[in-house]
Design goal:
- GO terms for molecular function: acetate-CoA ligase activity; AMP binding; ATP binding.
- InterPro entries: Ac_CoA_lig (IPR011904), ACAS_N (IPR032387), AMP-bd_C (IPR025110), AMP-bd_C_sf (IPR045851), AMP-binding_CS (IPR020845), AMP-dep_synth/lig_dom (IPR000873), ANL_N_sf (IPR042099).
- Keywords: ATP-binding, Ligase, Nucleotide-binding.
- This is Acetyl-coenzyme A synthetase.
- It comes from Cafeteria roenbergensis (Marine flagellate).
- By secondary structure, the protein is an alpha/beta fold.
- Helices cover about 35% and strands about 20% of the residues.
- The chain contains 22 helices and 31 strands.
- The strands form eight sheets. Strands 12-11-8-6-7-14-15-24 form an eight-stranded mixed beta sheet, with helices on both faces.
- Strand 16, helix 13 and strand 17 form a beta-alpha-beta unit.
- Helix 7 crosses helix 8 and helix 15 packs across helix 17.
- The radius of gyration is 24 Å and the shape is globular.
- The protein starts with a helix and ends with a helix.
- The site of 5'-O-[(S)-ethoxy(hydroxy)phosphoryl]adenosine (WTA) has 20 residues, from helix 13, strand 20, strand 25 and strand 26.
């Protein structure tokens, strides 16, 4: 809570610039025929979603989802009691909603386009195909004793089969726990044990960026220490010659023998749908639990409005299903809406930096959803190569996962979208299930760097250090949500007390996001980053994102990461790691210039203590910078770096240590 107060004070230092940012008008390509048109229409619907909340959600829950039995109550329970429930009494099946119900009208239309690691290795699955494949794996799971309420661990590459397994679990009422296939065996082991999974589904190997990932080998090491696991089911992605033990089963013959239809289990609205583990600022990863009815309604409605989804679109979210983005916006949201959703197995840089542009051109993609980190890594290359691709199919460009700096936003808008696409900077979390703050295409005037306005039914609030709500505009604080929304997680697996303390303990009656935010003069929300990443320098609090944004505005900075470091007199100093653009030459003059850039953008108290140029940053494979590693390096605690196995490129650590030693 101390963070919140300082964050509020900090507002007075940094507000003006953001308040001055002009809006970019809604985009013509999106405007005609948009699902919701104009800010007035948004405001009217938003107001009614709060004022007549039950009516709003009753109407939309019925519009987006088919119920086997209609619900008796829209929303019940409170944050304070930790018993929030949505659509109680309702019965439905998520897989039925995502697959079967579309078959009469679009059984032969493409549900999933899969683009493999190699360029152009494309497989398409119609809704009928998906029903058949999902049924087969559902029947195999059942044959291994998986029943309603059982937890199934999934550790797979981005094969289409990963989506089939998720849907198969939903079909039979099992609870999937997808673990991103970049996690180490220890991380996998902990997650399997925490959820007491009885079956693990994996693949022999994965392929990503031309490299082979020995998944089954990792599973073997994990499962050796997982007493609850009875069977490991293995898809053959590469047909590698790997070891099979008595618990292991190749899926190919089992699927061939399985019946291609499996009935859908009728589920209660509040039955568990999936667990997804995510890191907190302290402690071990927490398995957030999402339930059936509210999650599906929320994934579908947000997919529809945020991406302005229209029939005939080819929608592509290039995230991994190992993260919440893949759950809500590759699988559940799009398929519930009957969309064509693309799954991408590769990386933005394989075989070269034009992969995304080629992907967009070949599939005529209409909505493209990626992360700021990918955008920044592509900005480093000249735009000439991109100009050779036809990107005119695009209508909406989305970003997620971290604050997008205005420079990256501009580049995405100008060069990828050719100033004709709407940018949707979607703010949300594993915990929120779906977007909670985002522009709507053709509707919300945009401001580069702002996630703009809350989604329908989401009542945001900014809190100060005393736990009070900050009213008015041009203010900063900690971002909270004031009332339940359907997509929110319901608990942490096996630890409801931790759920309550983490999310409802700091500000009683409010959901605490853990992020700081600025609300500008127009009520637009600017996420400033996690409050746990806030630095305290001589009593001044600084968002690392603010300093990073200042650095990145320099023409020779491609990417940056700022962390606090121990400082004798100031408490904390500021350490900036910068990745220079390809055409920059590292020199002491340039580093001095960058220091000045931060001073002049934010204030002299924000002058960096260290600026360290590096060829790369330690990132997880999902693109998140591991700040813990950076903090340890600059604090010279390199013997306690912790698990770096999930880094996309662990070799960067040694370079950083060397560079930091030079700087200190
Ligand atoms: C950050 C990812 C700024 C934020 C969907 C949040 C963002 C955390 C944005 C959740 C955004 C996500 N602008 N920050 N558009 N989107 N974040 O659980 O700090 O992996 O708390 O969910 O990412 O990360 P998670």
């Amino acid at each position: 809570m101390a963070d919140a107060g300082s964050s509020a004070k900090r507002a007075k230092l940094a507000v003006d610039e953001r308040d001055e940012v002009a809006t970019v008008d809604v985009i013509a390509r999106v405007k005609s025929g948009a699902n919701i048109s104009g800010l007035d229409a948004y405001r009217a619907l938003y107001d009614s979603s709060l004022k007549d909340s039950d009516e709003f959600w009753r109407e939309h829950a019925t519009r987006f989802v088919s119920w086997a039995r209609t619900f008796d109550e829209v929303c019940g329970g409170t944050f304070a009691d930790g018993d929030v429930r949505w659509f109680a009494g309702g019965k439905l099946n998520v897989c039925y909603n995502c697959v079967d119900r579309h078959i009469p009208t679009k059984g032969d239309e493409v549900a999933i386009v899969h683009e493999g690691d190699e360029v152009g290795s494309v497989t398409t699955y119609t809704y009928k195909d998906v029903q058949r494949e999902v049924s087969r794996i559902a029947n195999v799971l059942k044959s291994f004793g998986v029943r309603k309420g059982d937890n199934v661990a999934v550790y797979m590459p981005m094969m289409a089969e990963l989506a089939f397994v998720m849907l198969a679990c939903a079909r039979i009422g099992a609870v999937h726990s997808v673990v991103f296939a970049g996690f180490s065996s220890e991380s996998l082991r902990d997650r399997i044990n925490d959820a007491r999974c009885k079956v693990v589904v994996t693949a022999d190997e994965g392929r990503r960026g031309g490299r082979t990932i020995p998944l089954k080998h990792t599973v073997d090491m994990a499962v050796a220490m997982c007493p609850t696991v009875e069977a490991v089911l293995v898809y053959e992605r590469t047909h590698a010659d790997i070891k099979y033990s008595s618990k292991d089963h190749k899926l190919t013959p089992l699927l061939e023998a399985a019946r291609p239809f499996c009935p859908c289990e009728e589920m209660d609205a509040e039955d568990p749908l999936f667990l997804l583990y995510t890191s907190g600022s302290t402690g071990k990863p927490k398995g957030l639990l999402h339930t059936t009815g509210g999650y599906l309604v929320y994934a579908a409605i947000t997919h529809y409005f945020t991406f302005d989804y229209r029939p005939g679109d080819v929608y592509a979210c290039v995230a991994d299903c190992g993260w919440i983005t893949g759950h809500s916006y590759i699988v559940y949201g799009p398929l519930c809406n009957g969309a064509t959703t693309l799954m991408f197995e590769s990386t933005p840089l394989y075989p070269d930096h034009t992969r995304y542009w080629d992907l967009i051109q070949r599939h005529r993609i209409t909505q493209f959803y990626t992360a700021p980190t990918a955008i920044r890594s592509l900005m480093r290359f000249s735009n000439d190569a991109m100009a050779k691709f036809d990107l005119t199919s695009l209508r909406v460009l989305g970003t997620v996962g971290e604050p997008i700096n205005p420079e990256a936003w501009r580049w995405y808008y100008d060069f990828v979208g050719k100033r004709s696409c709407s940018i949707v900077d979607t703010y949300w979390q594993t915990e929120t299930g779906g977007h909670v703050v985002s522009p709507l295409p053709g509707c919300t005037p945009l401001k580069p760097g702002s996630a703009t306005l809350p989604f329908f039914g989401v009542e945001t609030a900014l809190m100060d250090g005393d736990g009070a709500e900050i009213t008015g505009n041009s203010v900063s604080g900690v971002l909270c949500i004031k009332r339940p929304w359907p997509g929110m997680a319901r608990t942490i697996n096996g630890d409801h007390a931790r759920f309550m303390v983490t999310y409802f303990g700091a500000y009683p009656g409010y959901y605490f996001t853990g992020d700081g935010a600025f609300r500008d003069k127009d009520g637009y929300i600017w996420i400033t980053g996690r409050v746990d990443d806030v630095l305290n320098v001589s009593g001044h609090r600084l968002g690392s994102a603010e300093i990073e944004s200042a650095l990145i505005e320099h023409e020779f900075v491609a990417e940056s990461a700022v962390i606090g470091c121990p400082h004798d007199t100031k408490g904390q100093g500021i350490c900036c790691y910068v990745v220079l653009t390809a055409d920059a030459v590292e020199s002491s003059d340039l580093l001095a210039e960058l220091r000045l850039q931060v001073r002049t953008t934010i204030g002299p108290f924000a002058t960096p203590d260290y600026i360290i140029a590096t060829p790369g940053l330690p990132k997880t494979r999902s693109g998140k910078i591991m700040r813990r590693v950076l903090r340890k390096i600059i604090a010279q605690e390199t013997d306690s770096l912790g698990d770096v196995s999930t880094l996309a490129d662990p070799s960067v650590v040694d370079i950083l240590i060397e560079k930091a030693n030079e700087a200190i």
